[in-house]
Design goal:
Blueprint: E1 3-10, H1 16-25, E2 30-34, H2 40-45, H3 47-63, E3 65-66, E4 71-72, H4 80-105, E5 109-112, E6 114-119, E7 122-127, E8 130-141, E9 145-147, E10 159-160, H5 162-166, E11 174-178, H6 182-194, E12 197-201, H7 213-225, E13 229-231, E14 236-242, E15 245-250, E16 257-259, E17 261-264, E18 268-270, H8 277-280, E19 303-305, H9 316-330, E20 344-346, E21 352-356, H10 359-364, E22 369-375, H11 380-384, E23 391-397, E24 403-409, H12 413-426, H13 430-435, H14 445-455
Parallel strand pairs: 1-2, 1-8, 2-5, 8-19, 10-17, 11-12, 11-17, 12-13
Antiparallel strand pairs: 3-4, 6-7, 7-8, 9-18, 14-15, 15-16, 20-21, 21-24, 22-23, 23-24
Length: 461
């Protein structure tokens, strides 16, 4: 029997489930098609479980004591299996049930199936019991992305992607990670703090190559302090599985690196190849990304796309933002995708957060731009918390003082960057930031101090 649906959403990640709830709030009759767990990659095998492991790792690291603070510990016991159970049951499962409840509360129908397009108004829904057709009025593609696989690697239970590592049953003694971007660097530090011997292999000339070099160098210094081994400008050429573990060969190096487990984290690709987009007439770029306009509409007027399947950073909050816009458009409201700044955070220690433009990007875009840096060592809360290297850098238009961007390195950088994102979105100047009353002592008042520095009358520097 053919199903007749009004608004159907493919995927239930931070793009899909947010679109479903907002569309339902605006009067749409909504159906979500999900082939896996509700919540998608972010909730089940990405952002959330990785941050849970980082929390565990930091607590374990703190439990080891700090002689400078007069804290010594005779013995610290750590049960990795118990930690994994806490992450899976108390964090991931709890949040998944929460999202499931929200969908139910908003009367969103959820169908467990794999969706492919038959044409521009019909989906084929594949389940264990067979294939069923479903016609729709509107469709939102929120299918997410998957880790890129290196084709030359052998098939081995010891070679994992981020999903596999997050769900590993035992803490590996020797772990290598190929790719030192967001995911690779966060997990490398988490497992190093939990006791694994870490080797990072990165093709670029530094770890976290998506950030400016002074940011990368501060994170590298922290990694050095944990005894992590890092190979940059390095290309993994071959992997051999031996009785003693994996032998990794890097181009130009004769001696292999011996490890127990290898995680591959070299990027992600949009989940678009198996959707049958050509059957619906949907235009796709050479990179496999769905082409959309300013309201998220594809080349087929009744089909929209959001999140990792379209151009831009593969970030959960980007997907959620686009989801709300598209849901509003489908419901007849005037709305458009128009963000001036997209915050990005790497949850290493020190934490890294950016929003808006770097100084180089601002100049490339034609601004007469300037940047000022306020060091964390001049911030009283940072010092009271035990110090730590880092900074707040503000990028602004020199004549008008318009805030264009910021880069923050240090404790709670991911929380502080929201102030800058708000400033950019609302068109604030550095004088506006300087006039805001920040609490004292706080980490965030470094933003005010930097704004005063930018204006030429710093108090605390």
């Amino acid at each position: 029997m053919n199903k007749v649906l009004e608004t159907v959403i493919i995927g239930s990640g931070p793009g899909g489930y947010v679109a479903a709830i907002r569309a339902a709030q605006l009067g749409q009759k909504v159906t979500v098609i999900e082939k896996g767990d509700i919540g998608g990659t972010c909730l089940n095998v990405g952002c959330i479980p990785s941050k849970a492991l980082l929390h565990i790792a930091h607590d374990l690291h703190k439990a080891s004591g700090n002689k400078d603070l007069g804290i010594t510990t005779k013995e610290v016991n750590f049960d990795f299996e118990t930690a994994q159970k806490w992450k899976n049951n108390r964090v991931v499962k709890k949040l998944r049930l929460g999202v499931t409840g929200l969908l139910k509360k908003n009367k969103v129908e959820v169908i467990s199936a794999t969706a492919t397009f038959k044409n521009a108004t019909t989906l084929l829904l594949t389940t264990e019991s067979g294939v069923e057709e479903a016609t729709f009025k509107h469709c939102i593609i929120a299918a997410g992305s998957s880790p890129i696989v290196l084709p030359f690697l052998p098939k081995s239970q010891h070679i994992l992607d981020s999903t596999g590592l997050l769900n590993i049953e035992a803490l590996p003694k020797r772990l290598a990670i190929v790719g030192a971007g967001y995911i690779g660097s966060e997990l490398a530090q988490a497992f190093a703090m939990m006791g694994s011997e870490i080797t990072l292999i990165e093709g670029a000339d530094r770890i976290l190559p998506g950030f400016e070099s002074d940011i990368s160098s501060l994170v590298k210094k922290a990694f050095d302090g944990l005894g992590m081994k890092m190979h940059v400008s390095a290309k993994l050429s071959k992997v051999e599985e031996k009785p003693t573990g994996l032998h990794l060969f890097i181009e130009g190096q004769s001696e292999p690196i011996e490890v127990d487990k290898l995680m591959v984290s070299v990027g992600r690709k949009a989940n678009t190849s198996a959707l049958g987009l050509d059957k619906a007439g949907i235009s796709v770029s050479k990179q496999g990304l769905i082409e959309i306009n300013e309201v998220g509409q594809t080349s087929v007027p009744n089909i929209y796309a959001i999140g990792d399947v379209v151009a831009g950073l593969a970030l959960a909050h980007k997907a959620s933002y686009e989801a709300k816009i598209v849901a509003e458009v489908i419901s007849g409201h005037k709305s458009a995708i128009d963000y001036k700044a997209m915050p990005a955070v790497c949850y290493t220690t020190p934490e890294v957060a950016t929003s808006g433009l770097t100084l180089e990007e601002a100049k490339t875009q034609g601004y007469t731009a300037k940047a000022t840096v306020f060091p964390s060592v001049a911030n009283s809360r940072t010092t009271a918390n035990g110090g730590g290297e880092g900074f707040v850098r503000l990028v602004f238009e020199e004549k008008s003082g318009l805030v264009l961007g910021a880069q923050i390195v240090g404790e709670q950088a991911g929380e502080m960057i929201t102030v800058i994102t708000t400033a950019i979105e609302t068109g604030l100047t550095i004088e506006d930031l300087a006039l805001i009353i920040f609490p004292h002592p706080s980490l965030s008042e470094a933003i005010m101090d930097n704004a005063e520095l930018a204006m030429g009358y710093p108090i605390h520097l």
